[in-house]
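Our preliminary data section would be incomplete without showing what the modeling component actually yields. Below, a chain of 499 amino acids is followed by its predicted structure, encoded as tokens that our downstream tools consume directly.
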Amino acid sequence: MNRHSLALGAAAGLVSAAAGLAAGHLVAALTTPSASPVLAVGSTVVDQTPTPLKQWAVETLGNADKPVLLGTVLVVTLLLAAVGGVLARRSFPGGAAVVLVLVGAAGWAALARPAARPVDVLPSLATAVVALVVLRRLTTVASPPVDAGGRRRFLRLSGAVLGVAALAGVLGQWVVQRAREVTDVVLPRPRSPLPPVRRGLEAQFRGITPFQVANEDFYRVDVNLTTPVVDHDSWTLRIDGMVDRPYELTFAELLDLPMIERDITMACVSNEVGGPYVGGARWLGVRVADLLERAGVQDGADQILSTAFDGFTISTPLTAAQDGRDMIVAVGMNGVPLPRAHGFPARLITPGLYGYVGGTKWLTRLTVTTYDRDQAYWTERDWAIDGPIKIASRIDTPGGARPVEPGRVVVAGVAWAPGRGIGAVEVSIDDGPWQPARFGPDAGIDYWRQWWLPWDAEPGRHSLRVRARTVDGELQTEERATPFPDGSSGLQQIVVRVG
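Predicted structure:
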């Protein structure tokens, strides 16, 4: 087979794969978005990836980890499809076999999800049918010998197919985006509304993290490669397990229960020292303690196993719902219904615990059980069980990337120790004495504190360190630890160039 024949075969494989994937994506948008072939395979890769490699991806790629994964899956798929196209020019059954293996892997991945339904195989079936039809047509047009007229027909047909595929892909994405919009939910008023959120230091000092992080800027770390779309009209929350009276609530019934609102800082266990995966917001929801009291918790239980819509599980110590903290099933975030990216229609918020232990999104079930009986997704992967958020502090400004002008400079950032509260923040310049920083507004012990310190900066290179103390005087540790298995620790230190 000469070079031109190889190129035509590879092109036929690529075009047929693009058409099939676009068709599968459109069908998935109308049925189950996460069953789109590339997403289904990507999700399986995420589940099977060893914990150290996952942590490396989060640390190295940040929010780009999922796009990079999906891009890699797509590139590998297209390369194999190109090989199938080359084989199909010699023997169509051989090329078709490659397509069927690829699609079969996607279909298996979709059906292997914990909450999979038979309908989830439809996107893969649509991908197979469209890809095989297009591949057959293109290989027929490009059957050897191919003259100049045959190549022109091949190019015209390929262009038409790619145009239709692009339209199908855009339409599928539009359907998914429309489904993600939450427009028909009216939140109830809490029993005791909090006063309006106070103006933070961001109004005075450029570069400091806002006191209340906007929903669209709030960090997101989870295993979902696409934002789930859960229908709140058919959604239910089940409370069961080691309880006397298991029951279910519809979304409307949940909204009718007494609501509280709380200012709570959430943090991800994957956050490195000085990292971005932490945020403060105002949450509206129902106390988990009230839900469990209605069910009647039995003796011997020590865990709440929470389950998301797709079967993903998180384990939370039962004491977190019984020790007086306001662990809630949240339905609102910063005065509006939960965005889908943050767990609509309902999610867990647990003050003082990392999200992998107490922040289940797209929540559908609370099962009272024991750690001996049930393990959750992250504990099966050897992350720590309890997951209390460690005392932490961060320098937001000045950044280390750009030099600053000599003279008065404001050093500012945030510090957090949910459940214990921040009582003091101190800054050391060039390993000098620790200087007390000043605070911004206070929203309670479950919320972070903004801090700032005026500094008369002289030309040269300077190192800045920050540390925090809790309200009761516990000092942030200097001992360095990586996020795995129970969260990072250590003091952030940055180098600033002045002049």
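The radius of gyration is 27 Å. The chain has a mean pLDDT of 93. Preliminary results of this kind motivate Aim 1 of the renewal.
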